[in-house]
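In the previous chapter we treated chains in isolation. Here, by contrast, the input contains three separate entities that must be folded as one system, with a combined length of 912 residues.
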Amino acid sequence: MKVELTAGPMLRGAATIVAFALIVVPIVIVVVAAFSPNDYFQFPPPGLSIRWFVEFFGLQTMRSAFALSIELALASATIATILGTFAALFLARRHGAIAALLQSLFLAPLVFPTIILGVALLLLYKTIGMPVFPGLLLAHCVVGLPYGFRTVLASAQALDPALEEAGQSLGADPLRTLFLVTLPLIWPGVLSGWLFAFIVSFGELNTALFLTGPGVTTLPIEIFSYLQFQGSQLVIAAASSVQIALIVILVAVIERVVGIARITRAR
Amino acid sequence: MKSAWGWFLLTPPLVLALVFFVVPLVYLFWVSLHASSTSELYGAALTLRNYTDVLGDSFYLTIVRRTLGVAAVILGLCLVIGYPVAYFVALLPVRRRMLAILLLLFPLMVSNVVRAYGWVSLLERRGVVNTTLRDLHLIDAPLDLLYTPSAVVIALMTILLPYMVISIANTLAALDRRYQEAAQALGASPLRTFLHVTLPLSTPGVASGTLLVFLLTLSAYVTITLLGGPRSKLLVSLVYDSVTAFQWPRAAALAFVLLALALAFTGLILALLRPGRVQGAAR
Amino acid sequence: MNAVGSDMQHPADVQLVGVRKRFGAVAAVNDVSVDIERGTIFSLLGPSGCGKTTTLRLVAGFEQPDAGDVYIRGARVTSMPPYRRDFSMVFQSYALFPHLTVAENVAFGPRMRRVARGDRARSVDEALELVKLRALADRYPRQLSGGQQQRVALARAIVVKPAVLLLDEPLGALDKLLREEMQVELRSLQQRLGITAVFVTHDQEEALTLSDRVAVMRNGVIEQIGAPREIYDRPRNAFVASFLGASNFIDGVVVGREAASIVVETPGTRVSVPGDKASGERVRIAVRPERLRMARADAQGLPATIRDIVYRGPVTHFYMDSASGPLLAYQQNARAGDWTIGDEVRCAWDPDSAVVLDGARE
């Protein structure tokens, strides 16, 4: 728009600065605190130290929580993406009421309060005697499914349907068409779906709250427990910074591989 | 042959979604209709007492009211701050806009517990805010900023703001500029163009942002607990407490009351804003 | 195995027998039966929604018929999936695999048929040579122009030496000059290789240029099948007549019968037309504008007044009013007379140039 209210742009600019500050400052504080040399956080910090990172990796509980979070994220993202890809390939060219219903089902965990899912799953697991790690894994697969589904669906629908038909006209059966024609063309959607599912699993709290147990904790839950029962210790800042660093690396990877346009449109 | 392939694709994700999403929720609802039991997960008798207890008890009703109040304030703030930011972002040239959205997406990927911890560090008695105010000699004793509903509001609002901004920004950016140009050609001032053209056409984004923020507010247990403390509990905290006390039917009923609130609000927003009528306004 | 209804002398490469296909409440293809002879080019012509593309896709196997059968080279393929039928296809959007080079695209078919790498490379080379694109073998589709992409699509389809080549509006995306060039090339390629080809088009000029036989379709039904000249000169009804080009329609009554023709009385004149109708019957005759001769007012013929004259390069269009309704005549400018608007003329044509239309299928 060329013609605008002069107050408008200034207001918007001011709002944007305030908003970004409010959103980003808490995260920055945590990272800065992680490098604090003292026992408590001082702002501005008197120096930089990595003692809290050393302590973080020194604590067995923290280490195993971190390792578990990574394992869980790797496994659940992979399963969620494979299943999400199947669902997307099935629904890409189908229309009608049932297709719409299925699509809503696969996307539902995105908006559904996952804390209630956590409660429901815990109840179910207690009733049937499900061991902890598989139960948690399945919960994260459900939570990650929409992410694996959504981006692959967008990629699959953007494909010219004639391409798959061309493959068939040249003699490729559905399986070969999938591997030689479809997958090579939708892999950015699959990869970005996987990365989102990984990130979501790594930071997931609401189902992990109920489904973790003694010896089986994720990093976010470990941080939460620490905060609740031992107060604001700076080792938490280090733990949080490790999580943030991982996210930054992954986002940079997505951006390199898949491109910024695809990530922002995927939302 | 085609249908065999189709079933092969559909069955695994469908099984996952049904068995580990739909079935547990149905089971939870089923349990909410049973009496409590001290020895088993739930008693044998079917009853609606769990719901009537919750809806009749003033304690629970206060919590529900507080929950809705907090949600309303957060929503209001997100809308008031979020809309202008979204407008700003939508007007940016494409590359910068995508960068802005990426910058907004990044905090969403950081776990809520980390972001809540950031606010704890800011608001606690030895936190950044208090220390700075004391260093500047504006206050003598540290303020009790933490463990209040306001702390929950501030933290949750900033945590959920990106959802609102991204929703609205994407809708605004996709709007065909020609609608605004047509309005101006017909004599509307920039303000009136905004009120009568841009704002109504942005309802899908506003609706989805609002719903997202509301739903996430209802279920943000960790943030509410860390910043609200034991005295500022909301509905979701009660669900958690019931579970840890092994009162499954009570927990289930509370969970479904929460869900009912979410559904009711969704219906309200869809009816009020009617985002469906502006389908097709995007380029 | 003997193909149903095929003459062993002239084997039909493709046969559709009583094929029907519905989409919801709409019958897209309604009882279509066609025999396509080996080595010929057959076109399905008609307006949008007439069922021509659906018919093509039924031959390919991308759609399954609700009733009827499809045969390719005598084998009943009705329930066979596309990847097992002996055909290949050139798509409207070309559908070149974007992640493969030109050579890899063309090699795809042979790869599916497990042709050895050496033979494969040779076939690809030959095919690309035929479409004159050997130099671009290592390029990617996005680096090619529309015309080049179309050729690659063609090469990819012919390299597998299919029993039948299907083409779905293959030249639709090209500009006029390129399209005419490709029409000639397509025809010469097909004749060199002797492939049976079926293509779909809405452009009657293209159908008439390329085909050995044309099926004109409307609302899922074949209105008329025949060689281009046959359906152009002898259209069965007003729809076919108008679809293949402009036509004059003159209504009249049969007043007499001769050897192989009837005498028709129209407002303004009495003419002889080849046909067989009973005396007293109302008929509609069609005459192509290029067959309508214009003469001065003192000559024999249908009286008409010139309403408009439009110069069109090689010909001039004359729009006239007569007692039998509006008339259109084309005059070659090399031999044109000197006419002006308002002139009184007499229109006549050779009796053989007129056709009695099937009134029942208006």
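The domain at 62-228+260-278 of chain B is CATH 1.10.3720.10 (MetI-like fold). The two ends of chain B are 39 Å apart (CA to CA). Compare these points with the single-chain example from earlier in the chapter.
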